[in-house]
Predict the structure of 15-hydroxyprostaglandin dehydrogenase [NAD(+)].
Amino acid sequence: MDVSGKGVFLTGGARGIGRGMTEALLAKGAKVLFCDLIADLGKAAEADLQKQYGADNVVFRQCDVTDGDQLKGEKFGAVDICVNNAGIMDERVWEKMLAINTTAQIRGSQLALDHMRRDRGGRGGLIINTVSLAGVFPSYFFPVYNASKHAMIGYTTSWAKNPKMGEMGVKWRCLCPNAVNTNLLVFEENQVYDGDKFLEWIKPRMLEPEEVVEAFMKLIQEEEGDGVIYGVFKGLGGVFKKRRLVDADGESNPIVVD
Ligand SMILES: NC(=O)c1ccc[n+]([C@@H]2O[C@H](COP(=O)([O-])OP(=O)(O)OC[C@H]3O[C@@H](n4cnc5c(N)ncnc54)[C@H](O)[C@@H]3O)[C@@H](O)[C@H]2O)c1
């Protein structure tokens, strides 16, 4: 999709990957409403971005994505692209983590679908959920985080398979980066299991947020690939691979292919 002039709603945009996504979308001419729990960071980002891209093109709202009323209250006026990106990794508060990473992403997706569906007067659109490679492969370091992300792969790809989706005019994609150098991976004690080991193990594969943002922009702008699971890997100097889970026999036994 050409993002120029498009309306975007994005969650978790105050820092990390979401902050980078917001800026990259603005640079391509989109209008972005981004929300986050952290008001001071969000407001600072808004001030910065408004200076560069114009006050009419970017707006921040403080919002807790787990509060359905707050999400609904954010008018989805003219949203063409919805990016459910807010997330945490904290096994100590696993129910809260499920509420943010899974329930809120599902709620955001449903609201966006209702708003966008062409068969009900909308103008179509694109829903991207920031998932993770942790949604594709098991990992003993953070089982509930892993489960929260596996759920979003199941949810997003299931909607993409709906035979009426063409009529609805909505596309669905999962962005699945490997580990990224953001605050999400700054662990306190017991936040994950063997956090030091994980960080040591993942170090050579760790992405920088800009690399993920670049992949995200490719994913958005690509016309093909509905229901795609878009893996982002540290490759040769940050080369991205597009990976898709396909059904080996049409319905079950998914395998990963390039
Ligand atoms: N960093 C990684 O290794 C990595 C890898 C793969 C996927 N991801 C996913 O990328 C997304 C962005 O993470 P990040 O790495 O940029 O981390 P981050 O911590 O830098 O950013 C996450 C943002 O989400 C916001 N947020 C958290 N809870 C919220 C809530 N209840 N309501 C509103 N906003 C809330 C935070 O305030 C923060 O600004 C997450 O979904 C994460 O799971 C991260």
Notes: The helical segments are 16-27, 39-53, 68-73, 94-116, 143-160, 165-168, 195-202, 209-221. Residues 11-12, 14-18, 36-38, 63-66, 85-88, 100, 130, 132, 177, 179-180, 182-185 surround nicotinamide-adenine-dinucleotide (CB under 6 Å).
